[in-house]
Design brief:
The complex is a heterotrimer of chains A (100), B (419) and C (937). Chain A has 100 residues and is mainly beta. Chain A is 9% helix and 33% strand. Chain B has eleven helices and 19 strands. The longest helix of chain B has 16 residues. With 419 residues, chain B is an alpha/beta fold. Classes of the chains: A mainly beta (100), B alpha/beta (419), C alpha+beta (937). Chains in contact: A-B, A-C, B-C. Strand 17 of chain B pairs antiparallel with strand 31 of chain C, so a sheet runs across the interface.
């Protein structure tokens, strides 16, 4: 697999490390709603198919990217800097999660 | 159907093996059952068997998307052990170990359970102390474990690089002699045949498209082979858990699906006599009865639903293998494959009633599910039959994460790629 | 057999000597081991896997299932090599496999007597006994394991080099046959960067291509893997066929990224399936012609041919031209084309249509065949006829080598005309050409199988694994009918040839039994590698160098001064500096004692060091650490804790405020990389609005800690440009100074509990600073100390490290609960008070003291009472243990259930692994100077 790092160009997956599901929004730090926190920390959408996820180019420029990738074919549709990403994380509050 | 035995094998040989019967029936699904088990892998089949055998519930259907035993039970590295650190895991896996010891007779099928030992190699004193902590915890709980010296490791694994100049010189190890391997396909087929003999319907090529609900209550499944109803629907689909649960309306689970690769070399005369792990990296290996060295390493490290792996892990695993065994550099890799692991947030499984009424869930086996096959089936059958957890499975709830009762043997927290 | 005067590949003027099973033979330059042995009259090359039947060569290349040998090169063994793939070299040593004592007399052949018993899956039905006892299988397994397996690997380390190369190209052409050459030439002429890889040695046409400057020709190279994003892996056999030049690898691992790829991997012939088809002397027809033309080896002089397609007619002509008599062509088809008939006429042979071979005669080599009329389903009838011959060429059609096109998971298509699986629909930038897609391949009769009348005359489908027609029938009877079940139950296609010669025949049999087409029955998934690949080649440059070494700037000094280093993760660190005659324990006790009495110097360069800079640096650290960092004054340091989001302790370290907007953060050695990723993740993904950056400076600084009552005195003598006195440099203070001309940073921090200072020097000058301290300090009693003494000092103080921060402990567990700020949220704050994290009975940090003078073992557990049974409830475990020079006894740290409440209790330490039981007392983890007067003094 190769990921097109916006800074460095097309690089082998060996240079990157996976940094997790990007379909999550960290709750307000002052929130005391434990359901929201638990959902954020322990639950994942884990899509079979197109999936938004964080990757870090840690053997390169060390940028974190938001990558849209097919988790079955491993085709990569886009990779942009997480810091500047326009991809709005999916709001998780309305859908149903396992109570974990 | 006749019992399998040496006598039958010889008798049939003289009939040209023409009298053997189907190992299991291929029935048409009925419209309803007492229990539907979604997933015809190792755990689904063993659950069906114990429901029928231990709890007398024989009106059971196992619905499988493809053919039986094609998930992780058919694509693992066969290791069986109970050498865990935490008591919750130890108690459960020791139950499994006890069941393995009698499984061939129980199923009347040779699952080739071979107690050749599982050896974790340590490479410095601190690592050996960590292993000792685990080994002592095992011993205190009545599980066998032995601390191996450097010389013991060299004796157990002839050909291993014992040089002082190795990148990670060998310092010692932790051995569980009762650990070993079993023939993975035989486990799936043995449970399938045994469950079938007790009246369980094994329905292949039936993918669950949707769960039928009455309000929130699950009352059946709609499959590619029609609707099937049951008051109890048990989900046991390992790597596919998130997608199957989505079909029941649950969008997020404490699970990520990752790929774990496995590798075999060409067939060799016996050269590796135990199961062992390398403490300088991430590698485990054994040799099959057919002679192939069967080995693997870390998961690829990112969500994947493809049953195939990436190149960097192949390169890592091969380098570690020849680092330990520099005499095997010319031996050849014959095949590789990948399985989808249902990685949880603490590396431990989930066996539970719910999360919806009428539903039961068994998942989260990470890359260690094969060795759990008997115990998982028994405990899950218990949960289904009695609506309460088996005594050895009480900790493996879904709500342990939110309550702060994670069973984190590796101490890595909610980052599945590190478990 | 006859050796001809010439062959296209061989140079008859060069004679090469080699041995096979200890016997001397000769061949020519250009020979393969197979052609040279065939040319020397050898018929039996090996024994089959299960039944130990004698087997000869079947093919010419990777499809070969039978002729597997072990090559021995200076004691290094290379098992299971196809003799057809070994290029002959002078002095080659080859031995046959899976036989004892010899190929001709193999005791394992006794298995053939039990052939009927050893049907598919028989071992699942027996060998386990009627009662529960796993030893029963273990007993049988011992014998089965020894009977199974092919060649033997050895223990002699491979001295060869392996190498890796990355390559990029516009067009990757895989296979340099006709179609591949054409594609490569066209791309080359268009000016594209081309790589063409071919399995075989170079020949004229590949030489011609190599003259294009934009073409890289890789011969003896097998592309074996198709990975994501058009990444391909290949094995180049650089110097397997000759002695390597100096520094030259044996194999090279190629990782090639291609903008487009042309698959031209070709097709390989497959045999007919009929009784007795495994007898030495029965070969693929095309292989016979190939040996004659390329290697000048006529494998027989009285040759019969058995076929279902036209290709064998050309073979007959070629073999006749080479000097053989073609006795007959037996064809299962009832009619053939005029073209075939004309071709056969040139061979002056009899054509027998609508017939099949039902038996072969001869003990260890074929001496004749019996034929009988056969219908389209393979059923035979009518009178039989015997034909005398000395070899039999068979052709059952061709199997395109589609592996690379399907490794990613797409299913291939079955083509009825070709009776073969062809590549699936390919991505836009992938092209398949030549015989791989069926171009130029003959159309055979539908796959059929002639069954044996008697069980002795087996019809083999998978030769190496001895899978016969009856095994497939049994699998069908028992319901193992899906492709994957069939494969696993019978082991069809799982041999080292990966089913090249067997797969279609096996599928054909199952399809016939099910009354389905092969297309409906399907095929199992082909996976990497395309064919066997040496483990060493994939390890490549990491063979012998599995992981990098990280050395501190003072590493050489440690070695020069008797530092006993060991690998801790990637780092090499000194455990202790041994004086002559000292044990490690004596050395660390001496070193630790010196630190408390005078002073010691320890290398702490491995600590993670991260610069956190920017206007929001303080706010960022407030969120990262449990305690407040924004209130830290400039040029002061503070101890800090980090939690994970789930409220569990993640790491501890210090933050040094070097300016309003600038912090140096230190981490534990083990977690350095993880903490760095953690900070970057939060900066970039969670709080992108914060103006802050983090930079790893671990390798920029060499770091050393000088501790002990004399530390300040020694430091004062070497530091210029700044005062190290308490007013200028109090506990947790920081100064800039100069040591021996090197600008350094000094923070007064103490891990040992003594008056201590961490000195940070630019890595390139750190050894100079270290030596300056040693030189000035030694007369004042300064000693270098290693990790063991460092560990001892921290145990005495109850300071925690990775053994206690084990990913399950909370701050409160370790007595650090007070460091969790209540004034601000931080990572983990929301989760830190969940029920499971504050419950009774959690493991807490305590100290332990040995009560009988023996050492505590790391990893031992604490129990209430000693008893006869070793089974007991663990109250906790020892995380670190040492001899305490200060307390004069063996002590340790432990994590213990409700430990703080148990301080003062006398309990038992149990270490069943090392057979030790001893009395201990639970004590406070702060064993030395609990009030901290020394480090503040």
């Amino acid at each position: 697999m190769r990921i097109n790092c916006p800074h460095c160009g097309l690089r082998d997956v060996a240079e990157f490390s996976y940094a997790g599901d990007a379909n999550r929004t960290r709750p307000d730090p002052n929130s005391t709603d434990m359901d929201v926190w638990n959902d954020y920390i322990f639950n994942r959408v884990n899509t079979r198919g197109r999936h938004h996820e964080f990757w870090q180019h840690n053997h390169g420029c060390r940028a974190h990217l938001i990558v849209e990738r097919d988790s079955v074919t491993h085709e990569i549709f886009s990779a942009e800097l997480a810091k500047k990403s326009a991809i709005a994380p999916i709001k998780t509050a309305k859908t149903k999660a396992a109570k974990s | 159907m006749a019992e399998y035995s040496a006598w039958q094998v010889i008798k049939n040989a003289f009939n040209g093996n023409t009298d053997w019967k189907q190992a299991w029936r291929k029935p048409e699904p009925k419209s309803s059952y007492d229990v539907i088990i979604v997933g015809g892998g190792g755990h689904g089949l063993s659950t069906a068997y114990y429901l029928a055998k231990e709890f007398g519930i024989r009106n059971v259907a196992v619905v499988e998307k493809g053919s039986l035993g094609q998930g992780n039970v058919g694509r693992n590295t066969q290791a069986i052990r109970s050498n865990y650190l935490l008591p919750e895991n130890q108690h459960f896996y020791e139950l499994c170990m006890d069941m393995w010891e009698g499984l061939s007779q129980e199923l009347n099928y040779n699952v080739m359970f071979s107690q050749r030992g599982v050896l974790n190699i340590a490479h410095h004193p601190a690592q050996l102390d960590q292993f000792a902590r685990r080994g002592n915890a095992m011993r205190l709980n009545g599980i066998d474990a032995d601390l191996y010296s450097r010389a013991d490791v060299g004796k157990a694994l002839p050909g291993i690089d014992m040089s002082e100049h190795a990148r990670f010189p060998i310092y010692g190890g932790l051995m569980q002699k009762s650990g070993g391997v079993a023939r993975h396909d035989a486990v799936a087929w043995g449970y399938a045949r045994a469950a079938d003999r007790l009246g369980v319907d094994l329905i292949e090529n039936a993918e669950v498209l949707e769960f039928i609900k009455d309000g929130d209550q699950i009352i059946g499944v709609r499959t590619t082979r029609g609707e099937i109803r049951a008051p109890k629907v048990a989900v046991c689909v390992a790597g596919s858990t998130s997608e199957v649960m989505r079909r029941a309306g649950i969008d997020r689970m404490p699970i990520e699906s990752h790929v774990l690769q496995a590798f075999v070399t060409e067939s060799l005369k016996p050269i590796i006599h135990t199961v062992a792990t390398y403490g300088g990296g991430h590698l485990y290996f054994s040799q099959t009865d057919k002679g192939s060295i069967l080995f693997g390493g870390d998961i690829d490290g990112y969500n994947s639903w493809a049953q195939r792996g990436n190149l960097p892990v192949v390169e890592d695993v091969m380098s570690e293998m020849v680092t330990l065994f520099p005499g095997l550099a010319r031996v050849r890799l014959l095949r590789s494959w990948g399985g989808i692991m249902d990685m949880t947030m603490d590396g431990a499984p989930i066996i539970t009633t719910g999360p919806l009424p009428g539903m039961y869930l068994n998942c989260g086996w990470c890359y260690g599910g094969f060795k759990a096959t008997p115990g998982s089936g028994l405990c899950f059958a218990h949960a289904i039959a009695k609506d309460e957890p088996h005594s050895k499975a009480i900790p493996f709830t879904l709500d342990r994460f939110s309550r702060g009762y994670a069973i984190d043997d590796k101490g890595q927290g909610p980052t599945p790629k590190w478990h | 057999m006859k050796r001809l005067s010439s062959g296209l590949r061989i140079d008859t003027s060069v004679t090469l000597r080699f041995t096979f099973d200890g016997k001397q033979y000769t061949g020519h330059a250009g020979d393969t081991l197979a052609s040279a042995l065939l040319g020397s009259g050898i018929k039996i090359f090996g024994r089959s896997f299960k039944l130990h039947r004698p087997r000869g060569v079947m093919g010419i290349g990777l499809e070969e299932p039978n002729a597997l040998v072990t090559i021995i090169d200076n004691g290094v063994r290379e098992p299971n090599i196809q003799a057809t793939m070994v290029e002959l070299r002078d002095g080659l040593v080859a031995v046959s496999q899976n036989r004892w004592p010899s190929l001709d007399t193999d005791f394992g052949a006794i298995n053939q007597l039990g052939g009927k018993v050893f049907g598919a899956g028989f071992y699942y039905k027996t060998f386990f006994g009627p009662f529960r006892n796993p030893r029963i299988w273990h007993f049988f397994e011992w014998f089965i394991r020894r009977a199974a397996g092919l060649g033997s690997a050895g223990h002699v380390a491979d001295p060869a080099l392996y190498d890796r190369m990355n390559a990029f190209c516009d067009v990757l052409v895989i296979g340099a046959g006709e179609a591949g050459l054409e594609a490569a030439t066209k791309a080359a002429e268009q000016g594209q960067r081309v790589i063409i890889a071919d399995l075989n040695p170079p020949y004229e046409a590949t030489g011609a291509l190599a003259s294009y400057p934009n073409v890289k020709v890789l011969t003896r190279t097998m592309v074996w893997g198709a990975y994501d994003s058009d990444t391909f892996t290949a094995l180049e056999r650089v110097s397997e066929h000759r002695a390597p030049n100096h520094g030259e690898p044996r194999h090279r691992h190629w990782v090639m990224r291609a903008a487009s790829v042309v698959l031209a991997t070709g097709a390989s012939e497959r045999p007919m399936v009929f009784p007795g088809n495994d007898k030495p002397g029965v070969m693929l027809a095309g292989a016979m012609a190939h040996y004659a033309e390329q290697f000048g080896v006529l494998v027989g002089e009285q040759i019969a041919i058995f076929t279902n397609n036209d290709s064998a007619y050309g073979v007959a002509r070629d073999l006749a031209n080479a000097g053989a008599s073609i006795i007959a062509i037996v064809d299962v088809r009832s009619s053939i084309s005029d073209e075939a008939r004309i071709t056969a006429g040139l061979a002056q042979t009899e054509i027998i249509l609508g017939y099949g071979v039902v038996k072969t005669t001869g003990k260890n080599a074929v001496t004749g065949i019996t034929i009988q009329a056969v219908d389209a389903s393979g059923k035979t009838s009518g009178p039989t006829r015997e034909i005398t011959c000395d070899s039999l060429g068979t052709s059952g059609g061709f199997t395109p080598l589609i592996s690379l096109s399907v490794q990613k998971g797409a299913r291939p298509n079955f083509n009825e005309n070709l009776q073969a699986f062809l590549p699936p629909a390919l991505p836009e930038n992938w092209h398949a050409v030549g015989t791989l897609v069926g171009d130029g391949l003959p159309h055979p009769a539908p796959v059929l199988l002639i069954q044996a009348e008697t069980p002795e005359d087996k019809a083999f489908i998978d030769f190496q694994h001895d899978v016969t027609d009856t095994d497939i029938d049994l699998a069908h009877r028992e319901g193992f009918t899906s492709v994957e079940h069939l494969k696993r139950y019978t082991t069809l296609g799982m041999a080292t040839d990966q089913g090249r010669t067997s797969h279609v025949a096996g599928m054909g049999r199952m399809a016939a039994l099910l009354g389905k087409s092969i297309a409906e029955t399907g095929t199992s998934r082909l996976r990497a590698p395309f064919a066997g690949v040496s483990l060493g080649s994939i390890a490549a440059e990491r063979f012998g160098h599995v992981m990098p070494n990280r050395l501190t700037p003072m590493h050489d000094w440690h070695l020069e001064n008797a530092g006993q280093t060991y690998a801790a993760g990637l780092w090499h660190r000194p455990m202790a500096y041994l004086h002559i005659g000292e044990t490690i324990e004596q050395a660390y006790v001496r070193e630790a004692r010196a630190v408390r009495a005078t002073a010691g110097l320890v290398d702490v360069s491995t600590l993670g060091k991260i610069m956190v800079q920017g206007p929001d640096a303080a706010e960022f650290l407030n969120r990262i650490y449990t305690n407040m960092m924004s209130t830290l004054p400039v040029m002061k340091a503070r101890y800090g804790l980090m939690l994970r989001e789930d409220g569990i302790l993640f790491d501890d370290g210090t933050a040094w405020r070097l300016g309003e907007t600038e912090f140096l953060v230190t981490t534990t050695t083990a977690n350095a990389a993880k903490v760095m990723e953690h900070l970057e993740y939060y900066i970039q993904c969670i709080w992108p609005d914060l103006k802050v950056v983090a930079t790893s400076v671990t390798d920029h600084w060499g770091a050393m800690a000088i501790s002990g009552p004399q530390a300040r005195n020694i430091l004062g003598k070497v530091v210029t440009g700044a005062s190290v006195e308490n007013e200028a440099l109090p506990h947790m203070g920081i100064i800039h100074g100069v040591i021996d001309g090197v600008e350094v940073m000094i923070a007064r921090l103490s891990f040992s509990g003594e008056r201590a200072y961490e000195v940070y020097a630019p890595a390139g000058h750190a050894r100079r600073v270290w030596e300056a301290l040693i030189e000035t300090g030694t007369p004042l009693g300064l000693v270098p100390y290693g990790l063991e003494a460092l560990g001892t000092l921290r145990v005495e103080k109850g300071h925690v490290t990775g053994a206690e921060l084990d990913g399950r402990t909370t701050a409160a567990d370790l007595g650090l609960g007070g460091m969790l700020s209540k004034k601000k949220p931080f990572i983990g704050s929301a989760m830190a008070n969940r029920d499971g994290l504050i419950r009774e009975g959690r493991l807490q940090l305590v100290g332990l003291k040995s009560l009988d003078g023996r050492a505590l073992n790391g990893g031992a557990h604490i129990i209430e009472n000693a008893s006869v049974s070793e089974v007991a409830t663990s109250l906790g475990h020892v995380t670190a243990a040492c001899y305490s020079p200060e307390l004069g006894c063996y002590v340790g740290l432990a994590l213990m259930s409700d430990g703080r409440k148990r301080i003062g209790q006398k309990l038992i330490l149990s270490d069943p692994l090392r057979k030790m039981i001893m009395p201990i007392e639970v004590i406070s983890p702060h064993m030395v100077d609990a009030e901290g007067s020394r480090m503040h003094g």
